[in-house]
């Protein structure tokens, strides 16, 4: 069986499924980047726990974890099945790595999972296992989650981190409410941050990447809180030692809210 790549997606807001944007069209093209997955394991920035948790739910329902969006979004259903057998395998691998996972018997799909999967795999015929982040843990810890699950790529499992390369929502909503252009300084801070990641991934400089909070330019301006960046370290760790990183998408909403996506193989 062909070894699967791993993927980091900047998943956007839930309205991405209705928007005519480059980010949406990119996510719709994801299935063309790789062989068809046998199953998917996804780490969403919207699934937060103390430590790491694995969902065993065979039929996850929907979580509409947002407010103030178009009514039709609250009617959408992504009926992909769970996979308790794969969940048990994921749980065991995390346990073997000393990461002390927890079982979650029932949990639906949050928008960090169902919106990109609805666009990327609209037939909803690939089973999905959800794994959490812990927002109190650092990049190295989330990287270790990916390392623990890396071997699943040899079994046709696609490992996905779903978050956002930048996530300054205060600035985003301020600009949206006021109908103004972003401050050029803010746009420059976003570009400096995203280009730093692109350069370090191209160099495969794991040590510097895992120390992003101290070394990347403008970390707090791009991530007032860290949870939306942690899935990128999961995807990177899951790709094994010295992966080839490809920035496969890099559009910006309103000139500053970056949608970078990376394929690691």
Determine Rg (CA atoms, Å).
17 Å
Q: Would you list the SSEs in sequence order as H and E?
A: EHEEHEHEHEHHHHHHEEEE
The name CATH uses for the topology is Protocatechuate 4,5-dioxygenase, Chain B
Gap from first CA to last CA? 15 Å
Name of the CATH architecture: 3-Layer(aba) Sandwich
Domain Extradiol ring-cleavage dioxygenase class III enzyme subunit B: 26-244
Cofactor: Zn(2+)
Family: Belongs to the DODA-type extradiol aromatic ring-opening dioxygenase family.
Protein name: Dioxygenase
Considering the chains and any ligands shown, give keywords for the structure:
single chain, 265 residues, alpha/beta, Protocatechuate 4,5-dioxygenase, Chain B, six-stranded mixed β-sheet, two-stranded parallel ribbon, 10 helices, 10 strands
Walk me through what this model shows.
This protein is an alpha/beta fold. It has one domain: LigB-like (Protocatechuate 4,5-dioxygenase, Chain B). The chain has ten helices and ten strands. Strand 3 (53-55), helix 2 and strand 4 (102-104) form a beta-alpha-beta unit. The radius of gyration is 17 Å and the shape is globular. The two termini are 15 Å apart. The mean pLDDT is 94. This is Dioxygenase. Belongs to the DODA-type extradiol aromatic ring-opening dioxygenase family. Pfam families: LigB.
